[in-house]
Amino acid sequence: MSALPAARGLPPGSPQRILVLGSGAREHALAWKLAAEPGVERVFVAPGNPLMTDVAELRPEVAVGDGPGVLALARAEGIELVVVGPEGPLVDGTVDGLEAAGVRAFGPTAAAARIEGSKAFCRRVAAEAGVPMAAGEHFEKAGAAVAYAARLGGRCVVKADGLAAGKGVTVCDDLAEAEAAIRDALEGGAFGAAGRRIVVEERLEGAEASVIALCDGQHALALPAARDHKRIGEGDTGPNTGGMGAYSPLPDLPDEAAAALLERFQRPLLRVLARHGAPFRGALYGGLMLTADGPRLLEANARFGDPETQALLPRLDAPLAPLLAACAGGHLLATARELGIDGPALPVRAEASVAVVLAAAGYPGTPRTGDVMQGIEQARAAGGLVFGAGMAAAPGGGHVTAGGRVLTVVAMGPDLPRAADAAHAAASEVRFEGRQSRADIGRRLAVPA
Ligand code: AMP
Ligand code: GLY
Prior knowledge:
29% helix; 449 residues; five-stranded parallel sheet; binds adenosine monophosphate
């Protein structure tokens, strides 16, 4: 697909001053993309991380959940669009607060973000929308949940209803495992309030795909499909993480096929949410399982995926700032037309993209912090985009680790094998004690059942 003609100009009302909320590699990728676009004058990030100063102005004193602080910053800097990265503040109503104060924000209101904030709510909306999911039920009592898991033959999936930082899901091989997961959540308080209600689901088999759409409450435009690698270990082994890497495009779900899936997933969800007075404006993420019986929705997220976004944005061949503002303003299709975009898919480069996450010692358990990092400039010189996450400035200069997922290194190539080679080569330049990464990111092209 061709690049957009610059001469066409930007749609009126395109934001020039943008604030991105969050501090991870996803938010760094968003700031990187926005900062490079014509018409965007200044990009701020709060609280951000020190690596983001390459593309944005940091406001580390403003926390993502600090509503009054965010509003004060938006007013002081004349922010025309706030882009909310993580799910926590969305579910907590950050966008509601900003909108009430007259500040335009990209992301759903609390009522619409509930599609991620409660898995039981997501299942209800999907059922009403006719969106296919695994069979499942929600429970607050362990006895009934165990009985249902037994009806499913023990091979099932147990999920905390609420937000659990990607760790609330147990994929079980047998009833003993399911019963332990059920009791841990409902009786042991393993996930706190998020696990006082659980969902027990039929366990589906297939390859997973993430399909993310920009939505304005009514209409949706698709990013290409990406695939996350959720387990810590190579060959998809070991415990789940927030995501150890991602790639796009998917050989088994080409970009056009991904866009066609909006008709089965995002659009019906949008119709039902709007009908219930909770129109969804933001990034609606469908976590899909491509089963032998067709795609099924595993989860809906109310935001961009991490690390999918780091792999996807370098492929995007359209200006994000006016599109995000159009989602917030409810006029996505008109803006897309002004940008020369027609059809359900956003224009993308044909090249493949691979994103490799580097994690700290101890992750996904409690990560060790304070390990001195080296080689970020070398990774960039080797052609990698380096997006920072759990890292901090070292007192004497340079950086130290400061969280579980430390950074993401992304590279593109004419095809997936070459993009993977480039991404791993660049990532290998970054060194710190205890560093964990998966050498099979982008090289394990579908996850067999
Ligand atoms: P979720 O947070 O609901 O996406 O679940 C996290 C991960 O658990 C998914 O990416 C899948 O790998 C797995 N998972 C969730 N639901 C199911 C299911 N019904 N069948 C099989 N695996 C699942
Ligand atoms: N990559 C999974 C997520 O963002 O939820």
